[in-house]
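Kindly inspect what follows.
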Amino acid sequence: MKFATGTTVKNFDDYAAWLDVAADCGYAMLTTGDSQSLWADPYVSLAFAAQRTTTQRLGITVSNPKTRHPAVAASAASALQHISGGRFVLGIASGDSALRNIGVRPGTVDETETYVRTVRALTRGGHATWQGTDLVQRWAPASTPVWMAAEGPRTLRAAGRSADGVILSNSLTREAYTRNLAHIADGAAEAGRTLADLEIWCMANVVPAATEAEGIAQVRSVLAGTANHVFRFTTEGKGLPPALVPKVEELKRRYDSTHHASPETAAHNASLVDELGLTAWLAGHSTIAGPIEHCADRLAEIEEAGIHNLVVAQFVPDPIAFMRTFADKVVSRLV
């Protein structure tokens, strides 16, 4: 398996220390998100990271088609490719907390797919049309892999057609991963491609703890945020048991996006998954928690299911200690 890991940047002294440890621990890719009201700008953060690292890929997981015009995103992506020596990857989704916190609606599937196509073309030196305007980047474009985060059948097929890679949430079961790959493959076939033409990465919360229950309890607000994102437009085609549909709808109504991806301040969101009886199902699809041996066993099960690229989230009290523990005690057991 290959492992990526990410953080949200709020203090650049802390980020420098984080980057040093992440690089030393051997992660294949280092990521950050794009939510301007909650943490630092990802292009600035990864330009900083490009100066402090040498071999790791650097990824935005994920941006959206609304807060930056595609020509702006393509120019920034090209700049990061030049600075990093070709290590940058740009992930795009329809938009979640970045847009909720400024009152902007998410992109539709068609808008998001068109945005991906446009940014890809511009970074490759091609022409593109966006909302009726012809675009071209007239300074040194630099080819950038553009990935899509996708959950539902339509978005998964769009990613298969148009993106260089796909980022999956709630996919850490054989059934979910197989279902999602089938949709991606259908989209790829529409464009004359196969799954081999795309990189597939799965998001995972990994939480070493004394017990599995204790570890899951630490990321309940993250489970709520993932559910709110994955099921926000529809619950159809995403493997959600019918009995849980009304519970997820209630979670969506009550979710507080001002504390998205911030477990330390999101007690309200954390309480929702327990109150609504969603914790076990959501954790089973997104979280690896418990003693070191159990975490290693779960990773081996996931690899056996065909998942080979994992973005490891760091919703833990001490990210520095977590990275060393994960590399030295968990990953080492898989070799």
User: Anything to note?
Assistant: The chain has a mean pLDDT of 95.
